[in-house]
Design goal:
about 700 residues, Rossmann fold, Methylamine Dehydrogenase, Chain H, 8-stranded mixed sheet, 5-stranded antiparallel sheet, globular, serine protease, protease, signal
């Protein structure tokens, strides 16, 4: 062991801070220097990448002691938590899905750690519990990730994850008795579950060597499992030993006539995928799209022996095509529109398409040949999801929500084209006390960027309102308007919540995404900075009342922005962020992000990444009050990113910043909170940290 590393045990036990003067646990440095295309880059905290070492565990313990001692001294922290619990404590239901005479749905009574899966015969039958994940672990951190029912409705294959990890274990349930069969399937990750006949397809990796939570995942395989057999008897359906960083998924059409194989190669920086099919009874897959390139393709459904396919091939906003395998011909069914296609589902012999128009949903119903029949009238401007179902369905369900509109489930009758409320939540507060407006601000290069701003009616624009600005900005992911009960206690105190739809997302299609990826990533940071400047200019807040928040790619966003503009805000929350842009691809499935970021193995990409990497651009200047958050079971963005970033932040800025620079490491949790209790606790700590560092005293809670 390196001598400097052996000092960790003593160093991390350095005296804790007094509230008048910050003193952080010192973090040992090692003499690690890497050569990137002729540039020497020091990595003194490399040892924190070892999630299994006693030294890392001791460092985490010391940091958590510091952070939670600080949080416990905030006088209204517990009252905030209690208020969040009060507003979150209402019954939450998912839209039902039908399998034969049974309707399956999820229900959470209010504060249950995990939602419970129910079923009932018909829409008026008595609900019965199918699976209650709350009974599977003492702390309620075992999650039901998927539950897929066989075509005959006799069995279900389902997967569970533990402690927030992305790894899943698979099981088979006999739905007649609601009991498990004997088999257990391990090392499932990035997988669909698709039934065909007496078994199902799934994707997995070989058992990892080294740390299960940090080791690089390669050789993604598709397997077939027959009911009643052990995993050792499973049939390997597909792997590619020449391309170990490819993803392979398999889905089966509703009539089980075709198995569809999807192959993507993001490890080589390609955005698209290849597509293959295999007819029932055939031995080998036949190509629909033989090579992975820059375009994506997905099968929506089959019409006899032909396929409806959504693609962005020469259509940045996507279109729908029909492919005939017999003669390899393609036909346009739905051409590209000015708005990006958000989703395509079939049910009841109809094609349901949802589009985004200025970040709000529009839904249209088409005949299977593409003819437009009608638009679904939605309750207002917001986000809509659902509409999928079976070919013989007479009605489907969808869920509508917005910032001040709680998720409400509607039943849409296909014949009459009418929507009716199926169920809506009963709340203990009045969401109409708040309002949302959408504005468009100007970014650094003149681009108009949309932003939603939500606040309590009657808000005074006096620059003194605690304001929380959130964004994501990456991976073609849209940040859509949606209701969150946990936001209510913040808004009740006169807080302002702003959601900026910055570039890198899918709000305006692939063009919007491409404008914020790879060598254009700085546009994302500029958009976020401009959003903060707009809020300040319009007197929602000043820089002493502005907080920045983002998670995952959004954590990278916050880390990069406070490096570039530490004066912009008073408080920052980089959550589960990708902070080491030079080594992200060396952990779990991080290599899969290369199309988005580029890769430091490439000289041009390295130069770009090195310019903004949060870890490598920390300055010895005063930073905003910062609380980094991560979790011990995050095996998507491994916590080493946050560990190394925090160590560097404390070392470089700790002596010149009067604001706290802390890290909060959750236990038995992952990339997102692993249960309701942990989500509420983290939210309460974020609000408490925000208010306290802004000098804001909440009104009666």
């Amino acid at each position: 062991m390196n001598k400097s590393l052996s000092l960790v045990s003593a160093l991390v036990l350095a005296p804790m801070l007094s509230m008048a003067q910050w003193k952080y646990p010192e973090t040992a440095k090692v003499n690690q220097v890497d050569n990137y295309h002729g540039t020497q880059v020091a990595d003194p905290y490399r040892w924190l990448e070892d999630d299994r070492s006693a030294e890392t565990a001791q460092w985490v313990k010391a940091q958590n002691t510091l952070t939670f001692d600080y949080l416990e001294k905030i006088p209204y922290r517990n009252a905030l938590k209690k208020r969040i619990e009060e507003v979150f404590n209402y019954t939450k239901l998912s839209a039902p899905s039908r399998k034969g005479e049974w309707f399956y749905f999820y229900k959470n009574n209010g504060l249950q750690n995990q939602s419970v899966l129910y079923r009932q015969k018909g829409l008026n039958g008595a609900p019965e519990v199918v699976l209650d994940p709350n009974q599977l672990s003492p702390d309620g951190t075992t999650r039901l990730q998927s539950f897929v029912i066989s075509k005959d409705g006799k069995y279900a294959a389902y997967t569970l994850s533990k402690g927030g990890s992305d790894w899943q274990d698979g099981y088979v349930m006999d739905l007649t008795t609601k009991t498990n069969l004997s088999e257990k399937i391990e090392w499932i990750k990035v997988s669909t579950i698709s039934w065909q006949g007496n078994g199902f397809y799934y994707s997995r990796y070989p058992k990892p060597e080294g740390s299960a939570l940090a080791a690089k995942n390669e050789n993604h395989q598709v397997w077939f499992h027959r009911v009643g057999t052990s995993q050792s008897d499973d049939q390997l359906v597909y792997q590619d030993l020449k391309n170990l960083q490819r993803f392979h998924y398999l889905q089966v059409t509703e009539d089980e006539k075709f198995a569809i194989l999807i192959v993507s190669d993001r490890g080589k920086g390609k955005e698209g995928n290849a597509l293959f099919y295999k007819k029932a009874g055939q031995e080998s897959f036949q190509p629909i799209v033989a090579e992975v390139d820059k375009f994506s393709y997905s099968v929506i459904d089959n019409i006899g022996d032909e396929f409806l396919i959504e693609t962005n091939e020469n259509a940045q906003n996507s279109k729908i095509l029909r492919f005939n395998p017999a003669n390899k011909s393609w036909k346009v069914v739905i051409p590209e529109k000015a708005e990006p296609l958000q989703g395509a589902r079939t049910a009841g012999g109809k094609l349901f398409l949802s589009y985004l128009k200025d970040v709000t949903t529009r839904v249209y119903v088409h005949a299977m040949d593409g003819k437009l029949e009608n638009e679904v009238k939605l309750p207002g401007l917001g986000t809509c999801s659902g509409f999928g179902g079976n070919a013989d369905d007479k009605f489907v369900f969808y869920t509508f929500t917005s910032f001040t509109f709680p998720p409400t489930i509607y039943r849409y009758d296909i014949a009459t084209k009418k929507s009716t409320v199926f169920t809506k939540p009963e709340l203990s507060f009045d969401p109409s006390a708040f309002e949302t407006k959408q504005i468009f601000y100007t970014s650094k290069d003149g681009t108009k960027v949309p932003m939603f701003i939500t606040y309590k009616k009657g808000l005074q624009l006096n620059s003194q309102n605690p304001t929380l600005l959130y964004a994501y900005g990456g991976f073609n992911v849209s940040s859509l308007p949606a209701f969150s009960a946990t936001l209510i206690p913040f808004l009740e105190q006169g807080g302002v919540y702003a959601l900026a739809n910055i570039r890198g997302g899918a709000e305006y299609g692939e063009k919007w995404h491409e404008a914020g990826m790879k060598l254009k990533k700085q546009n994302v940071f500029d958009d976020f900075i401009a959003a903060g400047e707009y809020l300040i200019a319009q007197k929602y807040c000043d820089n002493q009342h502005l907080a920045l928040r983002g998670g995952s790619n959004g954590g990278l966003l916050v880390g990069a922005v406070i490096n570039q503009r530490p004066d912009l805000c008073k408080v920052a929350f980089p959550q589960v962020g990708v902070m080491d842009m030079l080594r992200y691809h060396k952990f779990t499935i991080g290599w899969n992000w290369s199309p988005e970021y580029g890769n430091s193995d490439d000289a041009t990409d390295f130069k770009n990444l090195y310019q903004y990497s949060p870890l490598h651009n920390i300055k010895s200047v005063a930073y905003p009050a910062t609380m980094v958050t991560t979790a011990d079971h995050d095996d998507r963005v491994v916590p080493a990113h946050s560990f190394k970033y925090t160590a560097e932040l404390q070392a470089k800025a700790g002596s010149v910043s009067s604001n706290p620079l802390l890290i909060r490491v959750d236990v038995n949790s992952g990339h997102g909170a692993s249960n309701t209790a942990k989500s509420i606790e983290q939210t309460a700590d974020i609000y408490a940290f925000l208010f306290y560092n802004m000098g804001f005293v909440p009104k009666k809670l």
